[in-house]
Amino acid sequence: MKKTHKKIDNTLRVSLTKVCDSALENVMGFQWLTHLADYDDFPRSLKIICVFDTIQSQTLAEQQGRYAYLCELIKRELLKENIKLAEINRQVKFDSEERCANQHNGDWSQRLR
After folding, report:
1. pLDDT tens string 58-101
2. Of 5, 46, 97, 110, which has the fewest Cβ atoms less than 10 A away?
3. Residue 94's closest CA among 45, 57, 64?
4. CA gyration radius for the chain?
């Protein structure tokens, strides 16, 4: 990884850790989040995946407007680092541990490919 790419990744990790900590306190069923990016095409290539414990928790969060809350939280934290997501609804995805277990036997590396 290039030095500039590593710096971007570290900035992302710090910002997204803040998002994760807040979401753990404020969004029922939220478990963790991760990110993927092609740093040669950043920030357009950035994908953030928010993971819930169950499909039911994920569905409930969507119905209660928590997806919008999480997107706003992500947007706000990244803007603090001057990272602007042009298409936040395309770049932030939602998933669940249960769905990964059902479809990929809990193998997140396979699921995220």
Report:
1. 999 999 999 999 999 999 999 999 999 989 999 999 999 999 99
2. 110
3. 57
4. 14
User: Is-cis flag, bond preceding 43, omega within 30?
Assistant: yes
Task: Give the domain CATH number at 9.
Answer: 3.30.300.30
* Cβ–Cβ under 8 Å, residues 50 and 70: yes
**Nearest Cα residue to 99 out of 56, 48, 36:** 56
Q: Which two tokens stand for residue 12?
A: 């992302």
Longest CA pairwise span in the chain (Å) = 41
Number of folded domains that form the chain: 1
Instruction: Take residue 34 and report the two structure tokens written for it.
Output: 């991760």
